[in-house]
Write a structure and sequence with these properties.
The chain has about 575 residues and is α/β, with parallel strands linked by helices. The protein has helices at about 1-10, 10-45, 50-95, 100-105, 110-135, 135-150, 155-200, 200-205, 210-235, 240-265, 270-310, 375-380, 405-410, 425-430, 440-450, 450-455, 475-490, 505-515, 530-535, 555-560, 565-570, and strands at about 335-340, 350-360, 365-370, 390-395, 400, 410-415, 425, 465, 495, 525, 540-545, 545-550. Helix content is about 65%, strand content about 10%. The two termini are about 65 Å apart.
Length: about 575
């Protein structure tokens, strides 16, 4: 709720004007039954046509003023609701962007998408309806009761008894439905996650013939969502019939009391009509109030879910250290791992254990090992995607936790295992790391990444459109473009996390040769399962079950006759290579 109110404060003027104008509209509506009663009692009963026309004109004026107030109120309510929800989305997205990989892994992409879209839409609808009705409906209800007392006290007592009973029904149902709507949104998370996973991995599903089983999983989750919606819907559905029963009982009581008062001469016929009109207004407003309660209940449940994400503070707290403007002394290593261990949140065992090494400035470090040996986990600690559970990681002599976030990511560029392009153009993707890069610098990076031929063969060159996720490019093309994007940022430390897995051996070799020839004293980490990709590195780290099993140069590791030699021989046996 705090997050909602903070964003609604931006539209304080609209949030005040909308209900105020609705109150003005309600004020005009309360006079309509009195004017109607006056027409019946003094105009129709007396056969005074002129009096009827004058009072009819007054009714029309009340209607025009009420309509103008209503339209203006609708405008301000919509502006406040849409503006506040847009601000909430922006704030929520900004907050999500501050999360580390650990928080994103724990929360899950599906639930974050649901909260960014469905939940905030529910909040938007709730704000809109709340600003329009939260003052108007109670004002009409209590105003009608008060006006009824000015007409007939016995008849007004019937309304006075009906209103608390109706309120009891409405707020009782609200209390029952609120937790159920929260559980409904949680079930929607499961459906969203399932759909997203299947759409993302549709090729895998079809390749392994898993359509039937995935359909069953979706049907199960969708059934759970349906059941939760039905439970909440059935309780909410009780509201209208119960309110109508109470209102109709009140109508019967008013008509009976009014008839007795007319017979005694204490009440005019027009006044009974006014009382019935007031009851009708109460009925209409209570139905609106019932719908408002349902919508606001769902909005509050959704707002609580959004607030849950906002209240989750990023675990990683960054320092204020900036890179030394005079440069780093040559005797200071680029990267140092000081007895580092890593345990992922919720994991039972360490993914990395007692990792200890240093990388000199300008050196190239190869990281190789079997699947699940911890290669990606190791390099992800350098840009601080995760924090070490034990030990420390130092970059240019400083602990990574001391750096300002932007400063750390400014000197470290990572090309992840999964190449990711964003919808836009080739140019917009390349300049993400350095928006002021010139075309000459873009082409230089493309040549180094072996991606210049890709762009040259496109009709629009650098301005060639890129579809969502880069689906109009092959896997190898996406990898080369993402490498070029990293090079354009001109990082002091470049990490290629299995970034050439989709490239053929010739292109991979040309890429490594181009990287070695780049100007500057850049430190490069190459993660790969190919021995050919790391054999030219100054030092090779061989990981096994989260530990450094071996380290050294290519020739040293071959002579050691260990894991590295087994990997090398299994890949080069056909060529007869022995070292």
């Amino acid at each position: 709720m705090r997050f909602l109110l903070e964003n609604l404060k931006i539209y304080r003027k609209e949030a005040i004007l909308a209900p105020a104008l609705k109150m003005l509209e309600a004020f005009f509506d309360l006079f309509v039954p009195l004017v109607t009663a006056d027409i019946i009692n003094n105009g129709i009963a007396g056969g005074n046509a002129e009096y009827i026309w004058i009072r009819t004109g007054l009714l029309i004026l009340l209607g025009i003023f009420g309509l103008a107030a209503s339209i203006t109120a609708q405008y301000f309510a919509a502006k406040a609701a849409i503006g506040a929800s847009a601000s909430m989305r922006k704030g929520l997205f900004r907050h999500i962007e501050s999360f580390g990989f650990g928080e994103l892994d724990a929360l899950g992409t599906g639930t974050l998408i649901t909260r960014m879209t469905s939940d905030i839409n529910q909040v938007q609808n709730g704000i809109n309806l709340f600003l329009r009705l939260f003052l108007r409906s109670p004002f009409i209800v209590f105003g009608s009761v008060i006006m009824a007392f000015t007409i007939s006290i016995p008849a007004a007592v019937c309304l006075l008894i009906a209103v608390p009973l109706l309120s009891l029904v409405i707020f009782g149902i609200m209390k029952l439905t609120r937790p159920r709507y929260r559980r409904t949104q949680e079930a929607l998370d499961g459906v969203t996650t399932q759909v997203r996973e299947n759409l993302t991995g549709v090729r895998v599903v079809r390749a392994f013939g898993r359509e039937k089983s995935e359909t069953e999983i979706f049907r199960s989750r969708n059934h759970l969502l349906t059941q939760k919606q039905l439970v909440a819907g059935r309780i909410s559905a009780l509201m209208n019939p119960m309110t109508f029963v109470l209102v109709n009982l009140a109508l019967i009581a008013i008509l009976k009391t009014g008839a007795a008062e007319i017979q005694l001469g204490n009440l005019a016929q027009g006044n009974v009509v006014a009382l019935v009109n007031y009851l009708s207004q109460i009925l209409i407003e209570l139905v609106k109030l019932a719908n408002l309660i349902v919508t606001v209940t769902r909005a509050l449940a959704s707002a609580d879910r959004v607030q849950g994400v906002i209240d989750r503070k990023p675990v990683m707290q960054y320092g204020r250290a900036l890179p030394d403007p005079d440069g780093v002394p040559v005797n200071v290593p680029a990267v140092v791992f000081d007895h580092v261990s890593l345990t992922y949140p919720g994991a039972g065992a360490e993914s990395l254990s007692d990792i200890h090494f240093s990388a000199k400035i300008g050196s190239s470090i190869g990281v190789i090992g079997g699947t699940g040996s911890g290669k990606s986990s190791l390099v992800n600690l350098i840009p601080r995607f995760y924090d070490a559970s034990k030990g420390s990681v130092r970059v240019f002599g400083r602990d990574v936790r001391e750096y300002e976030k932007k400063a750390l990511h400014g000197c470290v560029a990572v090309v992840l295992q999964k190449a990711q392009l964003f919808s836009g153009t080739i140019r917009s993707n390349l300049i993400m790391g350095r928006p002021d890069a010139t075309d000459e610098e873009l082409w230089e990076a493309l040549r180094a990444a072996q991606a210049d031929e890709i762009v040259k063969h496109k009709a629009r060159g650098l301005d060639e459109p890129v579809e969502q996720g880069g689906r109009n490019f092959s896997g190898g093309q996406k990898q080369r473009l993402t490498i070029a994007r990293a090079l354009i940022a001109q990082p002091q430390i470049l990490i290629l996390d299995d970034a050439a897995s989709a490239l053929d051996y010739a292109t991979d070799a040309a890429l490594r040769k181009a990287l070695r020839e780049l100007p500057g004293n850049r430190t490069v980490f190459i993660v790969s399962q190919r021995a050919s990709s790391v054999m030219a590195c100054d030092e090779i780290l061989v990981l096994d079950e989260g530990r450094i099993a071996e380290h050294g140069t290519h020739q040293e590791l071959l002579r050691a006759d260990g894991i590295y030699r087994d990997i090398y021989m299994s890949q080069f046996r056909k060529a007869g290579a022995a070292g």
